[in-house]
Amino acid sequence: MEFHSKLLQPSAEQGVRGWNGPLPFYMTYPGYFGPGQEAMLLRDLEYLQQMYPADVRRFQKRIAEVLDKADYEGSMIYDEYPDKCSIGALTSSMLRVLQNEEEDPPTEGMIQVLLCNEIYKRRHGGRRGRYERIF
């Protein structure tokens, strides 16, 4: 009986910021990306983005330049839950810009994916519009 009562006691894992009590099961997994590890995730994301095909990298760089104009204090890209209509409007405006500049512009779906990636990077402290080699 003593063994079962010890199982119900909270463990001594108090080292997680803002958490009182035993750790949830998912926080004990190897490779769990907890708070404060955004820099490592961004480095990984930027490294993988360097492996995009050349034309996609060019579109990505241009999208980052255009998004610089929408990157200001209070911008909708920093809303907790940006609405789909605003993202769609931003995508459409970027599509018009790229259609004017490129012979073979990307599809609207590709622009939206690249835009969402860039917004994610900016919301989590990534490099704004600068693409540097990591290695």
How would you describe this protein?
By secondary structure, the chain is an all-alpha fold. Helix content is 49%, strand content 0%. It is built from 5 helices and no strands. The chain is elongated and about 55 Å long. The protein starts with a helix and ends in a 12-residue tail after the last helix. Mean pLDDT is 78; it is low at 129-135.
| Unreliable sequence segments | 129-135
> Can you count the helices?
5
Element string (H = helix, E = strand): HHHHH
Q: Indicate the mean pLDDT.
A: 78
Given helix and strand content, the structural type is mainly alpha
The percent range for helix content is: 40-55%
The fraction of residues assigned to DSSP E strands is: under 5%
Task: Give the overall shape, derived from the CA principal axes.
Answer: elongated
Give me the Rg, rounded.
Answer: 21 Å
Biggest sheet features:
none
Strand tally: 0
Distance between the termini: 57 Å
Per-chain topology:
Elements lengths: L1 H6 L30 H12 L4 H14 L16 H18 L6 H16 L12
What is shown here, in short?
The chain is mainly alpha-helical and 135 residues long. The chain is 49% helix and 0% strand. The termini are far apart.
Relevant terms:
135 residues, mainly alpha, 49% helix, 0% strand, elongated
